[in-house]
Amino acid sequence: MTGQRTAPTPQRAAVICGIGSSLPPRVVSNEELTRQGGLRTSDAWIRSRTGIVNRRRAAPGIATGELATAAGRAALESAGGPPPDLLLLATTTPDRHCPATAPEVAHRLGLSTIPAFDLAAVCSGFVYGVSLATALLLSGSCARPLVIAAETYSSIIDPLDRDTAYIFGDGAGAVVLRDADPGQPGAVIATDLGSDGSRCDLIAINGGGSRMPLAAQQLTRHDRYFRMQGRDVYAQAVRRMTQSSRAALHRAGWAPATVGAFIGHQANQRILDSVADRLDIDPRHRFGNIQDVANTAAASIPLALADTAAQGLVPPGARTLLTAFGGGLTWGSIALTWPSATPRHHPPHPRPTAEPSPASPHPRTQPWTMSSSTS
Amino acid sequence: MDDVLQHLVTLLTDKFDVPADAILPDSTLTDMDLDSLAVVEFAVTLQELWHIDLDDDAAADITLDDLAKTVRGLLSEQSGTAAP
Fold it and tell me: Per the record, where are the segments of Pro residues compositional bias (chain A) (predicted)?
């Protein structure tokens, strides 16, 4: 895995040409979280264990689709040009179990009847999504895919769970890819994906699926919420992201020392440091914003990408490594060149509603109008 | 000091910044201010070095001497693998 092999030079590549993001405006600090009681922890403890200081939280009535629509629209504005011909939404927290959230997001973005589907790979969702979109583009199945990663973990986290309550935040990021010359900034050069279902219980929500249906029984508190076995996850995350990163770099023919930008899934700053140290990535080439937004699951890499690009911290064309790890277990890495797109940001787009539904758990207060249906 | 113990001491000082005078035969990793994630990192590092699966849950609160014994035991269980 020394990067000695030269990757075959493809004639065409999937190139990131638009970057968008969306964050709920509400900031929840460690201090506020610990003041709420029940967690028996402190700001200092959370910082030392995770590197997290603040996270964003979606307001009541703001679901994943609202964040996804906003990030998707921002990415489309960043890209300019023709509309996308495929929408892929990576999420752990779809608006509903059925149907997928992506078709409605496509509708709200005015994208007519393009193929749109959700992808479930938990925190690896964005890397899986970009890898899949790249393969579909190179096969000719689409020409301009929009990949969105959006999460509302505040809807699945137990506020009293000391293992997870302070780790996660809400947010969304998105990219547009297009067919272009592999020498263009933003070109996806190599990908690596993997999974290990023998450890499927390390990160899970037990209840609400077909194995433990909501309707069949009263779920216990433990089964109702997202649960994570933190120490086992740490060890697996470090091993898998390191191995996967090496595999992607090997396929790209890049030595680790030539990587100018490293963005790992922002699970925990100490995991990120551990992986980057193992890969010998210089600290000045490591980027992220976990301190400000916490772990936003699938959205964490595109949010860090957008934040870093917005600050102009990496020259377009620099060799870039993205790596992620999540429930499943799943993991993946992408070797690409840093995009030249200027990121755009939108606050969540409230969902326009039709007639009020008595079954709706979140009564909508905004009247539906033609003008608001365009969001 | 045998090679295993010496290696553990070097790892603790070099990677985990434990002061040399805090590393005593009857000190535990917890005594040396390694928190639970640092103990996992310690176990992952040993796994990479020697391909042994050290139980990080048990490793945190046993003495350094006992930890070295545990590591030696795991190494000897590996057929065809010489202790470092």
Answer: 350-361
User: From residue A9, how far is each of A136, A181, A252 by CA, in Å?
Assistant: 18, 10, 10
Residue ranges, chain A, pLDDT below 50:
1-6, 355-375
What residues of chain B lie within 8 A of the CB of A274, using their CB?
41, 44
Instruction: State CA A80 to chain mean position distance.
Output: 22
First and final C-alpha spacing in chain B = 13
Task: Look at residue A125 and tell me if it is in a domain.
Answer: yes
CATH number of A129's domain: 3.40.47.10
State how far the alpha carbon of B16 is from the alpha carbons of A128, B13, B37, in Å. Answer: 34, 6, 12
**Residues B3-13: tens digit of each pLDDT:** 899 999 999 99
Domain ranges of chain B: 3-77
Decide if A349 contacts A70 (C-beta within 8 A): yes
Instruction: Name the residue range of residue A23's domain.
Output: 13-202+223-352
A3: region left, alpha or beta (phi > 0 left; psi from -120 to 50 alpha): left
Tell whether A366 is covered by a domain.
Answer: no
Q: Which two tokens stand for residue A179?
A: 């067919």
- CB spacing of B57 vs A231 below 8 angstroms: yes
Domain count, chain A: 1
Write phi, then psi, for A214 (nearest 5 degrees).
-60, -40
Separation in Å, CA B78 to CA A17, B53, B57, B59, B75: 51, 11, 21, 19, 5
| Cα distance from N-terminal residue to C-terminal residue, chain A | 47
Based on the residue annotation, tell me whether A265 is a catalytic residue of this protein: yes
Would you identify the CATH topology of the domain B3-77? 1.10.1200
The pLDDT value recorded for residue A46 is: 93
> CA of B21: how far to CAs of A204, A343, B9, in Å?
43, 51, 11
Count other C-beta atoms under 10 Å from residue B5's C-beta. Answer: 18
**Closest residue on chain A to B43 (Cα):** A235
Say if A81 falls within a structural domain: yes
Distance CA A182, CA A9 (A): 8
**Residue A214, token pair as written in the block:** 């909501």
Q: What is the pLDDT of residues B14-58, one digit of tens each?
A: 999 999 999 999 999 999 999 989 999 999 999 898 888 888 888
Q: Do A270 and B41 touch (CB under 8 A)?
A: yes
Collapsed DSSP state (helix, strand, coil) of residue A244: helix
What pLDDT was estimated at residue B81?
53
| A79, part of any domain | yes
